[in-house]
Amino acid sequence: MLAGTLALLGMANDTTHANRLLLVAACDFALGLVAIHPAWARAGRHTPAWMGLPAFAVLGMSTWSFGGSATGTGPFLVLIFAWAALHFPRWILLTYVPPATLAYLVPLVLTRQPPLVIGSAFVLMPIALAVALLIEAQARHLREDRERLERIEQWRAAMMGTLAHDVRTPLSTVRLVLEELKTDAPPPVVRMLDAALRQTARINRLAEGLLDVQRIDSEGRLQLDLREHPAAALVKEALAHVRSTDADVTLEIGAGQTLYVDRQRFEQILVNLLTNAFRYGAPPVVVSVRRHGSFDRLEVRDHGPGIPDQLRNSLFDQFSVGGTEGIGLGLWIVRQLAVAHGGNAFAEARDPGVAMVVTFPAAP
């Protein structure tokens, strides 16, 4: 398309060869339309390389139309080689050398150009081929890296899915056994069994979290069961799954405050935030829920050392924060779940400590 446009512009400067330039422009536009046809997507991997042959022929015609001036031919020859290097293997680049050389030399010979001009082909063609081979090498390395990353990603997704399913199956048996033991157990044992059941449920939710990561990566979305719930009840239920004492947590939730959320996903969000607050922060931890315009704002604030400014913006990115106690997925899942609700998640500095904030759209 670019070559055709330049040929049309050239008609204004060379009216004596206007008919030839018009023919060149028509050929260029025809090649451009053929090149963008959807049928190439169904063709063989190397089939589009045949487009280079008519492109060389049109370049030769262009040189002849300009009376043997190869000023515009050389750059387009290099451009065709660069395009081929990005998409095809090196043997095709080597196959291009004879037709490209003929497309460059024949018009110069027909228009009786001096030997110095004809000899420029022995400079241009090696340079065009060298540039193409360099581009092809880099493109090949990038394709190999991309294929390797795709294989790693497939392996990771399969591993996470298998791990999550394999964990949930024995957990179901453990839960049934614990519930059966509760039937005739004395009160002290019942309390221990209840604690074990809560942790079993917690492990099951962790397995579901792994499946959530897989669903988010593969589908980009999650199915939510959105309903209006009393905020205080939701928070207290989540606290039952976190190892803490009543003195560690302060609730600041209005009596009539509600949240329009998926109950299970909200619990997953709050448990993640509370776990981080107890692990990296310091008590007391303050959990508050307030209405701000059309959004409800959940805030989990600790009184620890806080988070460095340079880390705060990337805190909710995947694998951005990890170490011996985690792999950096918890806060990323929190943000993905918040976004799935239509809200967001971010960190705000406090003195002392930090506040993890999650917003949810208010009930319609």
Task: Provide a descriptive summary of the structure in words.
The protein has 364 residues and is α+β, with helices and mostly antiparallel strands. The protein folds into 2 domains: 220 residues, no CATH class; 136 residues, Histidine kinase-like ATPase, C-terminal domain (Heat Shock Protein 90), CATH 3.30.565.10. It is built from 12 helices and 7 strands. A hairpin with a 2-residue loop joins strand 4 and strand 5. The longest helix has 62 residues. The chain is elongated.
Percent of residues in helical segments?
55-70%
How many angstroms separate the termini? 52 Å
Question: What's the total number of strands?
Answer: 7
Return Rg in Å: 34 Å
Q: Uncertain spans, ≥5 residues at pLDDT below 50?
A: 322-327
Structural class: alpha+beta
Integer average pLDDT: 79
Percentage of residues in DSSP E strands: 5-15%
Q: What's the order of the H and E elements?
A: HHHHHHHHEHEEHEEHHEE
The largest beta-sheet arranges its strands as 2-4-5-7-6
Whole-number count of domains = 2
Number of helices: 12
Q: What can be said about the biggest beta sheet? A: 5 strands, mixed
GO molecular function: kinase activity
Transmembrane segments: 21-41, 61-84, 91-110, 116-135
Keywords: Kinase, Membrane, Phosphoprotein, Transferase, Transmembrane, Transmembrane helix, Two-component regulatory system
Enzyme class: transferase
